Every structure is written in C-alpha cells, then in structure tokens.
Amino acid sequence: MNRRHFLGTGASLAGGLALPSSLMADASSELIRGKAEHVISIWLGGGMAQTDTFDPKRLGDPTAKKAGSYYPAIETAVPGVQVCEHLAKLAPLMDRVTAVRTVHHDVIDEHAAATNRMHTGRSISGTISYPSIGSLITHERGAASDGAPPYVLIGYPNVTRGPGFLGAQSGYLYLTDTSRGPAGLSRPKGITEERQTRRVQFLSALQASAPATDDRQLTSYDAAIEQSLELSGPAFNRVFQLDEEPADLRNRYGGEFGQRCLLSRRLVESGVRFVEVSHNLNFMNGTGWDTHNQGILKQHELIRELDGAVAALITDLESKQLLDKTLIVITTEFGRPPEFDGGGGRGHQGSAFSCVLAGGGLKHQGAWGQTDDIGKKIVENPVTVPDFFATLCAAVGVDYRKNLYDGDRPVPITDRGQPIAALFA
C-alpha cells in the first residue's frame, strides 16, 4: 500500500519500532483465521535486494557511489505501487499480491543464521531445536489429503527446514529433480507389487516382535516409515509426471525453477499442505541472490526468471480456482543496502527488507509498510519475523497464539507474533 493511504494513521516510530495497534492484530483481540488450505513457499537463498525488486527507489549509480536502485521502476495494477522493470509480468498481477516491505531482524553477518531465522522465526538455541514454519503448519493441519505427504521440499535438505522438537512425522520429503519423485518413495525396477507386499509383511513382523515403547524418537520414526509406505505407490508418484501438462503452460513457467513451481501446483492439487521451492539450486547468474561485487551484473536474470515463474503460478492457480486456497510466499534471509560495495554490488541488510505474499484469500494491497527514500530504514508499519510468521499461520487457520511443547517446556508457536490484520477481510 502506498504512503499516502496511511497519512491519517498516525504511524510513528518513537522509541524504535512502535506499531499502531489498529494495523496489527492485538494480543487481546479476536483470533484471526483465514481460509487458505495450502502454502507454496518460494525461497530466494542469498538475500534478495528489495530496492532492486519489490521496493524500488530512486536510481543509484555504483560508479558514482550513489545509493539507490539498480534498475528503473514500473507502475503496477495497484495505484502508487511500483516494482522493478524486470518484474513486468507480475506488475499487472499486483492486485493479487502484497509485498511486505518492512520485514526486519538483526542477523546480517552470517547467511546460515539468517536462513535459520527466516525458517524457524527464532535465533539459534543451544538448548532447543526449533521447527521450521513448514513443519509448524503441517504439524497443526496435516496433509490436505490422505494420499499425499503434508510437507514437500523441492530443494536440498537442510536442518533449518526440519521439524525440530516436533519429530520426524512433521518433517519433509525432498527432491531436486522435477522429473521424478523423491528417491525414497520410488520403487527400484524389479520390485513388483507382490515383492513389495512381502517386504511390508516382514517389516510388520519385526515391529511386532519389538517391545512396546513410548520413546518419542522411535514412535516418530515409525510414523514416518508408515507414511512413506503409503506414498510409495504409483498414484502419488504420478504427480511428478510434468509432461502431462500442456506444452504452452510449461513454456509459460519457464526453465528449471519454473518447472519446480509447476510441480508445486501439482503437489498442492494432490493434497500437499506445504511446499517449499528453492530458487538457488543452480546459480544461473554465477552467484544467485548473493549479489556482492560483480554478482549484481546479472541479477536481472534471476529477477526475470522469478517474475515469469511466479506470474505463471498465480494465473495457473487462479484458472483452477486454487489461488484463494493457496498462499504463495516469497522469502529470503535478509535484504541488501541501497549503497554499493567496492565492487559495485551490495552487502547485507536486515533492518528493512521485503517478503511477498500472494493469493491465499488475503485482502491484497500491492504493498504493505513503508521504507525511507532509499529503502534503508522503516518509517511505517514494521513487521517482525514472528509477525510475518503469525500472518502465515493465520492465513491457513493455525492458532498463532498457542503453545507447542518440547517435552514439558511450552514454546509459543510464533514467538508471540501478531498477524497483519489489514490483510484479512
């Protein structure tokens, strides 16, 4: 939403990042529950520069060391909201999108720690292993269909995406090749249905012969085995046959990353609750979103690929009447400062950066929050990581106020975050 719309709200930042109570859900107000059923989370590993994408500012000049955007801005479907010129396919769809421009945290020195923060919503702890947002949502909602896993990662496995203290049953299946299903669910050639049945019977006999246990790790592991056996048949694995889709649709999605987004739509249709799609499996520009020094020179290639794939995903879901049921989320570990480094690229910035929401039945506004004239400081409607997570939880009907338990220890599900109430009709 543009700045003019909020001139009457009296937003202020006295004492740091104070927040007008009318703009975020108050802890004592009625619980917000959206109607989305699925989440497709797109992860931009490396740190997307907000001023070069969803929060454009004045043009900068790396040669003259003038802070600002690397690319010109263009208008969108929402009056007063602009995006970078390389987001030309998303620009006319921004009425289905909200770029949350004021996400912030204090982790900028280390990619792994920031990645953990943007997946778990917490600092790394030496005493507790926190679950990821994907595991939190699937723990609370489960799969949307009995014939599908609750959580699929299209990317490389990582502990930050994992279930933490929730246990293996809240973990993910992962794959890196969109042409075939997860290796653990694909039967080797020569394993007939009859042979598979004998294997399952043998496993059941072994389990029956073991003494009963209430050990959480063992019971969680058994539950994961049971789920994998249910999903190893041909019905679920057909989801990965992308050649069933029309050629023109596949072309609209684009290359490798686009095909992962197309697969995410098919996974949602099959009943998967939460899908994470990584955009940095192949660094097509040489550095991915980590655009220090010369890495910024081909940043536009990543932005264009993101633009085409996400625009195709939005319109594809909409054509299948799935957009209101599916929350699309674009996140990254931190942003980039408006100033240029010695090599002409950008460093790290956690004090203000953009994450993006689309679909999910939200009351979209094009943009939420306001940064200063170069995108370095927040001036209106700051959103903490717990607030952002609470917004995701609320959108899919998860109680963002409840406690989970690590043994007897209560753990607030979103570290007491409050949703962006204005996004809920």
Characterization of the model:
It is a single chain. With 425 residues, the chain is of the alpha/beta class. The chain has two domains: 3-184 and 242-423, Alkaline Phosphatase, subunit A, CATH 3.40.720; 187-231. 26% of the residues lie in helices and 15% in strands. Strands 1, 4, 5, 6, 7, 8, 9, 10 and 13 form a nine-stranded mixed β-sheet that branches. α7 (256-270) runs parallel beside α8. It is globular, with a radius of gyration of 22 Å. Residues 1-22 have low confidence and may be disordered.
Give a quick precis of the structure.
With 425 residues, this protein is α/β, with parallel strands linked by helices. The chain is built from nine helices and 15 strands.
